[in-house]
């Protein structure tokens, strides 16, 4: 009430946020802090010129969201909160340090399907892409933004098809830039998978994207989740085009089918990896020429292994 009575007074908002922050460690206060997110974001929107207030507000929201996630509470922030966060993003689009924090906040917010939908409604995707282009070197920004893109693209609503399509080259650039960073590569693979599921790739994207995903698998073969999401992304590409399937077979750095065998054997105890590999092979055998090649590579043997390993799945 103290903050709401004086929106225009920056000192009041700053003191209010600082006072709320003093309750972060008090577990009994947590349910009440959950109700304060709209007040905090509105204070940030009204006083976007004050970087100190933005940082303190963002830090407090991160603390509240972190606690919520630990306790299994999903915070479905409404459209007005999403709009306030977008306003803050646009006002401080050049401040790399603050954006790193803000993009982490957006990633945590977008874990909620409702919040992700609200971020889409207010039109945050072009801003995320702009940030990625500008700060392609920044690990935190790339990881967070790709995670947000995954959350926004994985929805079945296709109203943003053209906007999502513009995310393909940027996400590919992130993966190319951070191929050796498993955490970021995993996030970028997930985003590409979601974009492929939505049919956002053009004909000219299939071959280079397939090659890039194979590179990600080669360079991060120890990461089961990346292997799983990489195979799912490849399966989505192959479903859309035989070009992608042929690109896997004829990759300049070695047979993609041999790579799939290696990856499966590295993670043969992981049901998610096995399922993704089966899904990819199932998509590939839809094309006669590809199926003949897979037979010559003795892929039936791998399928039999998987069937023995997971007889009840």
UniProtKB/TrEMBL annotation:
Gene3D superfamilies: Leucine-rich Repeat Variant. It comes from Cardinalis cardinalis (Northern cardinal). This is non-specific serine/threonine protein kinase. GO terms for molecular function: ATP binding; protein serine/threonine kinase activity. Keywords: ATP-binding, Kinase, Nucleotide-binding, Serine/threonine-protein kinase, Transferase. Coiled coil: none annotated. It catalyses: L-seryl-[protein] + ATP = O-phospho-L-seryl-[protein] + ADP + H(+); L-threonyl-[protein] + ATP = O-phospho-L-threonyl-[protein] + ADP + H(+). PANTHER family: SERINE/THREONINE PROTEIN KINASE, SERINE_THREONINE KINASE LIKE DOMAIN CONTAINING 1. The gene is Stkld1_1. Signal peptide: none annotated. It comes from the Eukaryota. Its EC number is 2.7.11.1.
């Amino acid at each position: 009430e103290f903050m709401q009575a004086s929106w225009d007074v920056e000192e009041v908002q700053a003191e209010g946020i600082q006072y709320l922050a003093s309750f972060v460690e008090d577990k009994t206060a947590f349910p009440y802090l959950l109700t304060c997110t709209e007040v905090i974001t509105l204070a940030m929107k009204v006083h976007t010129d004050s970087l100190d207030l933005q940082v303190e507000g963002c830090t407090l929201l991160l603390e509240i969201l972190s606690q919520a996630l630990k306790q299994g509470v999903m915070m479905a922030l409404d459209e007005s909160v999403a709009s306030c966060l977008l306003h803050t993003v646009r006002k401080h689009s050049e401040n790399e340090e603050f954006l790193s924090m803000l993009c982490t906040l957006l990633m945590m917010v977008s874990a909620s399907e409702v919040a992700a939908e609200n971020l889409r409604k207010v039109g945050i995707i072009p801003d995320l892409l702009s940030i990625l282009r500008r700060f392609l070197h920044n690990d935190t920004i790339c990881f967070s933004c790709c995670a947000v893109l995954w959350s926004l693209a994985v929805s079945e609503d296709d109203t943003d098809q053209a906007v999502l399509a513009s995310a393909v080259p940027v996400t590919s650039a992130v993966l190319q830039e951070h191929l050796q960073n498993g955490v970021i590569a995993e996030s970028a693979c997930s985003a590409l998978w979601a974009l492929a599921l939505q049919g956002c790739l053009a004909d000219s994207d299939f071959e280079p994207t397939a090659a890039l995903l194979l590179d990600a698998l080669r360079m991060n073969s120890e990461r089961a989740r990346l292997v799983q999401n990489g195979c799912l992304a490849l399966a989505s590409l192959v479903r859309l085009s035989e070009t992608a399937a042929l690109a896997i077979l004829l990759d300049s750095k070695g047979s993609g089918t041999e790579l799939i065998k290696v990856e499966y054997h590295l993670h043969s105890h992981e049901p998610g990896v096995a399922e993704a590999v089966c899904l990819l092979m199932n998509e590939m055998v839809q094309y006669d020429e590809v199926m003949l090649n897979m037979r010559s590579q003795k892929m039936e043997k791998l399928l039999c292994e998987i069937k023995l390993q997971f007889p009840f799945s």
